[in-house]
Hints:
Blueprint: H1 2-20, H2 25-58, H3 66-73, H4 77-85
Helix pairs in contact: 3-4
Amino acid sequence: MAEDVTREAGEVIDALQRIEEIEDPVERAVASSEVLADFKKRAGTLRKYQKDAIDAMRAEEVPVPYRQIAARLKLSLGAVQNIERGHGSAWGTKPRKKPEAE
């Protein structure tokens, strides 16, 4: 099963590489736009898959340590902790701190 997942992820990465190899800049931009538009639609679902996996591993009778989760999901330790907190894995998805009153 893990081999199938790795193969399928590799196919997606190969397809993105082929977009980068398109010589015509307009065609490359059109292909990039299509990929980015589709990713925008799927991003929330993809992040939910990560959060569900993290939550499941942390809910086990003996919770899986964050470092092991990070290694299994191929994420950084900080990303795992942020995802569990609901912040996503990118700085842009974290809630902004309110400025302190002077």
